[in-house]
């Protein structure tokens, strides 16, 4: 492409909320055949809301929520914000947590009023010797609705289940239709459970789901698709997505997401509207036509 055609594409992109970092990003985009897309904050709004709290025998729902929220006050994860907000909406008084630790892709742990508290997925609890069998069926029922289920443990005992829902962005279904019309294969990549991911993917007609991926394995997954001969664009918003954005032939960050993601990406969608990818590809093809 000529410098002039790159300038034109850059300007048209910017006017449409699509920021290209460099000429390479513009030129490469038209060759992409696979879009790998993060679920939370990319396909969805990234602002989950509390839906359900289910205690096990011997615990009260408000106590489960109060402990979960007290612990999550120390976390910056969107899931944490949903739980803290849910507790505040109920007027529950939160307590300080000490020894707070975040296990990326798994959950959070800490001490509240002398009790050892864990909140996160089944892997986190099982790594700490806590079984979740009693909550497995209700958790799966929540996931089948596209919700994310988290388990609370208190002093080595499963105390309850907290479920949140993160609405799909209003622009996502149309974006997926347009991307399919361009012949792209769309792969969802998420740290969330397979059932939750598949429930969201089914409604969106996504081609493939890769779930339960730990944050540091996202880039590895992109690499594997590339090794299969795919030409990959990766769209994401989080710190966790940054290495995968850098690994992909084209990284696409949400302007609504973290700075780290934007720094690692060749393209930023200012408003996080995935239809911008189709726009960007049109501009990419237009630069090619200009040199013919
Ligand atoms: P995503 O890919 O959706 O951004 P993550 O990789 O951050 O998800 O987390 C994967 C899973 O780990 C979550 O679905 C949740 O079950 C658990 N988890 C991660 N962080 C937290 C947290 N702060 N509180 C509770 N659970 C968490
Ligand atoms: Mg995300």
UniProtKB/TrEMBL annotation:
<comment type="similarity">
    <text>Belongs to the cation transport ATPase (P-type) (TC 3.A.3) family. Type IB subfamily.</text>
</comment>
<protein>
    <submittedName>
        <fullName>Copper-transporting P-type ATPase</fullName>
    </submittedName>
</protein>
């Amino acid at each position: 492409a000529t410098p002039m055609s790159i300038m034109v594409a850059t300007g048209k992109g910017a006017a449409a909320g699509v920021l290209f970092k460099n000429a390479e990003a513009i030129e490469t985009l038209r060759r992409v055949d696979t879009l790998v897309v993060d679920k939370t904050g990319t396909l969805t709004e990234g602002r989950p809301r509390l839906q359900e709290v289910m205690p096990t025998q011997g615990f009260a729902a408000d106590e489960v929520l109060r402990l979960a929220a007290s612990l999550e006050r120390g976390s910056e994860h969107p899931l944490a914000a949903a739980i803290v907000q849910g507790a505040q909406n109920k007027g529950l008084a939160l307590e300080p947590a000490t020894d707070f630790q975040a296990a990326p892709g798994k959950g959070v742990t800490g001490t509240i009023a002398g009790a050892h508290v864990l909140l996160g997925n089944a892997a986190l609890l099982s790594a700490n010797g806590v079984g979740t069998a009693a909550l497995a069926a209700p958790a799966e029922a929540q996931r089948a609705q596209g919700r994310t289920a988290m388990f609370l443990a208190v002093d080595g005992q499963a105390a309850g289940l907290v479920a949140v829902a993160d609405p799909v962005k209003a622009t996502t279904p149309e974006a997926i239709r347009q991307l399919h019309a361009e012949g792209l294969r769309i792969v969802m990549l998420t740290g969330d459970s397979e059932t939750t991911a598949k429930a969201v993917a089914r409604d969106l007609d996504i081609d493939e789901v890769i779930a339960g991926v730990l944050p540091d394995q996202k880039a590895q997954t992109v690499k594997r698709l590339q090794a299969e001969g795919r030409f990959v664009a990766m769209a994401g918003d989080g710190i966790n997505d940054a290495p995968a954005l850098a690994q992909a032939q084209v990284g696409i960050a949400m302007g609504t997401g973290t700075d780290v993601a934007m720094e690692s990406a060749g393209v930023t969608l200012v408003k996080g509207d995935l239809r911008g990818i189709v726009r960007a590809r049109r501009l990419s093809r237009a630069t090619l036509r200009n040199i013919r």
